[in-house]
């Protein structure tokens, strides 16, 4: 089969379509013909050598896709089933082997590209905001990077839950995009201090920045607030004022989806399909595709996401459905 | 009535018995004649001017007591009921007004002094280890200060839950006391690096140190581990390595009981009585009274707790039962 490899492992832009062995599904896995794959920041990190696949996972990039089952193996699925897939790797390819617990039906009315665009964000946002932080109606959520793939999804999901949503972004255009999706409080981080605007107000914070925002995030937390860190774009080490955290009875969690074990992923996938798929089918939460590139031009897809000028997801089209 | 006041507010050792107004119970409160009161580190901090009572609470020290209801007010309790009480303040006195949700029956077979010795620790340990961190059978708990009031209780409770228990303490004598209570892994922090001994092993950590142990605690956390900070004896600001926390999908919470609202306290008290009182009645978890002083000698009680040489709780005897 064809798949994207790094022609020069030391050059993160050398993404090249090459002939590689088609994967053999292990027991409990199905073989899926990939129609579309999502591009994530984790793929950019992997290309740069900073985010190796967990043990046992494919060495190929690609953390989500949608396609057609060609060999269901021992799973409950059937040949020809159209599925969305949460992957530990392997999506940038014509075929991928997927554990049963990470196979989902397509959301009703969704194309392969649309489905591939929401797997990682839906599982990430649902598992962190609701399963971990317990976000619920009447609470206030602060989202950093509101215009990104995670952010645009989180805004809509939190509004669907009945929350007040604050976002940070770096331009008026991005903030306007957030507003259109339902965000209530728009903060341009180049002009305003989000810690001041949101002081003691955020019940939950979804953060992709890490160290640079750590102290400001604690200032923004409300009583019993929960800071959930899912990215480290602003560095890894920061000073934590534990007395301030304690004065709010606050919690900090730092999480990632990729290295979770199969059971954990299956639990998250099942809960996400149960609660988020109906919102997708109803259009309450919509997909946000920024651009689609052919698999052979994965390099341009990575460049687009790396530019920071993306509102929504970048997709690789792999096969015609 | 008589109560302990600071004769010289600038001198934390000037604890003196004085005549003060007897409190008037507000609606939903009962008046309790105090028979015994527990001494907590929070009282030491309050005497030193660092831990003011929350708004509306008594200015008098004392976060827990046991005694007899003299005026049940509108509560479901009756005059003459023997009760243990979780307090936001006011225990170092002959009478205290207590919200209904913070009144508990005495554990079966317990004296007033014994009951007064376990209210704060039972509610603190249960709410943090089980209600917050979800500690359960088969997990490993690391307790810092294993020989203190919190530590001795946490060891026994965690063993009752079926956990492996590791403790740190500063002397062989204290570690031996922990071992007798059931601790499995004994770490003398003056000789050994607990982060090395417990590296990646602790599902839950109960910490009273704060900043000084922050990085080492993150090193000790297991996958999906939860660090719960309930004291800041080792400082308030520390460097947090968020990447390390993320690699373990770890969580950090910092909590305190005193400033919680009435509803929250009532929820914690009810859950603690339901789950911990039977363990006390059965003797599975025992009280640990280190010394008892008369109320008039609260200064000596504070000096004893401040010395760091205490194994278990310090109690003030207020009235004969």
Automatic annotation (TrEMBL), chains A, B:
UniProt-listed Pfam families: ADH_N, ADH_zinc_N
Cited SUPFAM superfamilies: GroES-like (SSF50129), NAD(P)-binding Rossmann-fold domains (SSF51735)
Record key words, sorted: NADP, Oxidoreductase
Xref: CDD domains: p53_inducible_oxidoreductase
Chain ranges of the Enoyl reductase (ER) domain: 12-316
Molecular functions (GO terms): NADPH binding; oxidoreductase activity, acting on NAD(P)H; zinc ion binding
NCBIfam families membership: quinone_pig3
Name of the protein in its database record: NAD(P)H-quinone oxidoreductase
Species the sequence originates in: Corynebacterium canis
């Amino acid at each position: 089969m064809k798949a994207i490899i790094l022609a020069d492992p030391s050059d993160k832009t050398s993404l090249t379509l090459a002939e590689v062995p088609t994967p053999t599904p292990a027991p409990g896995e199905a073989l899926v013909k990939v129609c579309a794959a999502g591009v994530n920041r984790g793929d950019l990190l992997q290309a740069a050598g900073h985010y190796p696949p967990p043990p046992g996972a494919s060495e190929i990039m690609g953390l989500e896709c949608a396609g057609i089952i060609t060999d269901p193996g021992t799973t409950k699925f059937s040949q020809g089933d159209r599925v969305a897939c949460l992957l530990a790797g392997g999506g940038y390819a014509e075929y991928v082997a997927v554990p049963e617990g990470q196979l989902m039906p397509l959301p009703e009315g969704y194309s392969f590209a649309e489905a591939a665009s929401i797997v990682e964000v839906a599982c990430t946002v649902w598992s962190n905001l609701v399963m971990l932080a317990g976000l619920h109606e009447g609470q206030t959520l602060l989202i950093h990077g509101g215009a990104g793939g995670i952010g645009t999804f989180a805004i809509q999901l939190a509004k669907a839950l009945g929350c007040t949503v604050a976002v940070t972004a770096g331009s008026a255009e991005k903030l306007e995009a957030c507003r259109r999706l339902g965000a209530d409080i728009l903060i341009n981080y180049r002009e305003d201090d989000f810690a001041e605007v949101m002081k003691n107000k955020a019940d939950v914070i979804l953060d992709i920045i890490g160290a640079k925002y750590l102290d400001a995030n604690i200032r923004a937390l409300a009583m019993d607030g929960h800071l959930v860190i899912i990215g480290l774009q602003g560095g890894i080490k920061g000073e934590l004022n534990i007395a301030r955290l304690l004065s709010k009875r606050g919690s900090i969690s730092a999480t990632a989806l990729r290295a979770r074990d199969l059971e954990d992923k299956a639990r998250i996938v099942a809960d996400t399909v149960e609660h988020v798929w109906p919102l997708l089918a109803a259009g309450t939460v919509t997909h946000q595709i920024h651009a689609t590139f052919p698999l052979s031009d994965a390099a341009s897809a990575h460049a687009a996401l790396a530019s920071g000028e993306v509102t929504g997801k970048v997709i690789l089209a792999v096969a015609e459905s």
